[in-house]
Backbone:
């Protein structure tokens, strides 16, 4: 089954147009020639993207199995957060007010203030089966997983920390508003992408309808019907200027199709 998605409404950055997306509700379905997308929160889609697929409702679930939590990859972060809060399960406090689905969170090893989604992870379900965390190369904003994720299992520890969840939410209040990916670039070792963007004079700089936020330079904002070209040219400019001035090649958190 395919569904037509308007990425100017569906994606968090509101760029991309209307495209057919294959909906996957079985791990055995054939989607070999398509790119799997999630909640489109760090996705920049062109006017002519590669064929896409996304997980359907069959992968939107949360199950308690003894001392393990089994979660489908299409499950939204807000649903996971609310479940953990209601069941007094620790380790998911950082998900308060963070967008995305579990698959995307694991793929980029999402986190905040030193806490990552992989911390209590036991295993990840890929097409070839369940893969133990120890066989995956998790690092800062990195998993090394380059194939679709269908689900994950987590070790349960009890004692949900409401104060910590509120602290994380408070930190996010300082983030810019408007249509964006969240962070555009990952932070290089020992430095911050936002500082580097500001240092080369691009804080608040715009190309067409896209700009690096005046509030936090590592947020690319679609402030005036930005096009795919506006966004990619701004990203390329930042990478070029920072490499020329500092010898650092920034890596994007955003996935460009």
Residues:
């Amino acid at each position: 089954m395919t569904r037509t998605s308007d990425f100017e409404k569906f994606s968090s950055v509101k760029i991309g147009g209307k495209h057919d997306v294959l909906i996957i509700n079985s791990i055995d379905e054939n989607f070999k020639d398509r790119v799997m997308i999630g909640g489109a929160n760090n996705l920049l889609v062109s006017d002519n993207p590669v064929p896409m697929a996304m997980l359907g409702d069959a992968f939107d679930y949360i199950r308690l199995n003894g001392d393990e939590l089994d979660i489908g990859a299409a499950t939204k972060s807000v649903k996971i957060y609310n479940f953990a809060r209601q069941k007094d399960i620790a380790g998911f406090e950082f998900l308060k007010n963070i967008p995305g689905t579990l698959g995307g969170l694991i793929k980029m090893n999402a986190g905040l203030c030193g806490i990552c989604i992989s911390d209590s992870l036991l295993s990840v379900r890929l097409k070839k089966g369940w893969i133990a965390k120890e066989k995956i190369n998790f690092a800062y904003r990195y998993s090394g997983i380059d194939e679709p994720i269908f689900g994950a299992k987590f070790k349960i520890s009890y004692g949900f920390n409401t104060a910590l969840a509120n602290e994380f939410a408070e930190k996010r209040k300082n983030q810019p508003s408007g249509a964006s990916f969240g962070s555009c670039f990952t932070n290089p070792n020992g430095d911050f992408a936002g500082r580097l963007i500001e240092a080369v004079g691009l804080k608040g700089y715009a190309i067409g309808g896209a700009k690096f936020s005046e509030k936090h330079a590592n947020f690319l904002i679609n402030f005036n019907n930005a096009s795919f070209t506006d966004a990619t040219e701004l990203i390329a400019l930042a990478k070029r200027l920072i490499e020329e001035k500092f010898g650092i090649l920034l890596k994007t958190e955003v996935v460009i199709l």
Remarks:
- The chain has a mean pLDDT of 89.
- The helical segments are 7-10, 77-86, 102-107, 162-172, 193-199, 228-246.
- Residues 7 and 17 are 5 Å apart (CA to CA).
- The first strand starts at residue 2 and ends at 6.
